[in-house]
């Protein structure tokens, strides 16, 4: 099904953006990008009625689509100007990817679950996005062949910041990532790469995300 010309539900979108603004997302570029992406296309038909509510929703494979306010806040924290090469860890359903495609020059997205990645790629292609490339693999290891990146966003939480992702940041680049040993202890961090090779870390708030599975994250169950 071709999705390029499907417009978001105007009333639900307006209400969603009011909530997103109320939770600290003020960057007009981010709000405009979110306004152009029909969120209902990224969930099952049964959940479409809930897609503009500020809640997480299941997308299969025990994964979720993040709350709109969290998507907006994390995207805003990247400070994108339009010319960046961005790495996304955790493609999921592709909703965050679509928003990044509207704000960055090029998006590289990694998903460890092949079925989710394939579905997201088909969705993004049908919606007309072209400035992205996807890979199935261990996101905790980043995408070394395409490094460095001006921005990296991680949509799952590990017990610590993966060193590979920090190493793949360009000087001045920002990594936005949830970190914490348990869901109750997760914090959203922004890590900026400094000219001397060091980093500056900021705590942006508390969040709840699914586990970041991989060699530099948590072990897969089973």
Give a written overview of the molecule.
This protein has helices spanning 10-22, 28-35, 68-78, 95-101, 114-126, 163-167; strands at residues 57-60, 63-65, 85-89, 106-111, 132-136, 149-154, 169-179, 187-193, 199-206. The chain is globular, with a radius of gyration of 16 Å. Helices cover 26% and strands 25% of the residues. The protein has 222 residues and is an alpha/beta fold. A seven-stranded mixed beta sheet has the order 5-4-3-6-7-8-9. A two-stranded antiparallel sheet has the order 1-2. Helix 1 packs across helix 3. The N and C termini lie far apart (35 Å).
Give short descriptive properties of this protein.
222 residues, alpha/beta, Rossmann fold, 6 helices
CA radius of gyration: 16 Å
Count the E strands.
9
How many distinct folded domains? 1
- Give helix % range: 25-40%
| CATH architecture label name | 3-Layer(aba) Sandwich
At the fourth CATH level, what is the homologous superfamily? Vaccinia Virus protein VP39
Shape: globular
CATH-derived topology:
Rossmann fold
- SSE string, helix = H, strand = E? HHEEHEHEHEEHEEE
Question: Which runs of at least 5 residues are low in confidence (pLDDT < 50)?
Answer: none
Question: What is the CATH domain class?
Answer: Alpha Beta
Major sheet description? 7 strands, mixed
TL;DR of this structure?
With about 220 residues, this protein is an alpha/beta fold. It has a single domain, classed as Rossmann fold (3-Layer(aba) Sandwich).
């Amino acid at each position: 099904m071709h999705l390029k010309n499907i417009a978001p539900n105007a009333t639900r979108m307006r209400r969603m953006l009011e909530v997103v603004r109320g939770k600290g997302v003020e960057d007009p570029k981010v709000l405009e990008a979110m306004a152009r992406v029909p969120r209902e296309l990224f969930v099952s038909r049964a959940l479409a009625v809930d897609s503009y509510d500020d809640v997480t929703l299941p997308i299969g494979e025990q994964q979720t689509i993040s709350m709109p306010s969290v998507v907006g806040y994390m995207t805003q924290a990247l400070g994108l100007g339009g010319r960046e090469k961005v790495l996304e860890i955790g493609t999921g359903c592709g909703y965050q990817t679509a928003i990044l495609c509207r704000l960055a020059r090029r998006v590289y997205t990694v998903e460890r679950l092949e079925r989710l990645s394939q579905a997201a790629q088909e969705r993004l292609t049908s919606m007309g996005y072209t400035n992205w490339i996807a890979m199935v693999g261990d996101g905790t290891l980043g995408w070394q062949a395409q490094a460095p990146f001006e921005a990296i966003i991680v949509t799952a939480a590990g017990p610590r910041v993966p060193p590979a992702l920090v190493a793949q940041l360009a000087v001045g680049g920002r990594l936005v990532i949830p970190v914490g040993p348990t869901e109750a202890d997760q914090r959203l961090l922004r890590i900026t790469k400094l000219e001397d090779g060091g980093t500056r870390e900021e705590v942006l708030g508390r969040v709840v995300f699914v586990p970041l599975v991989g060699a530099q994250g948590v072990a897969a169950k089973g």
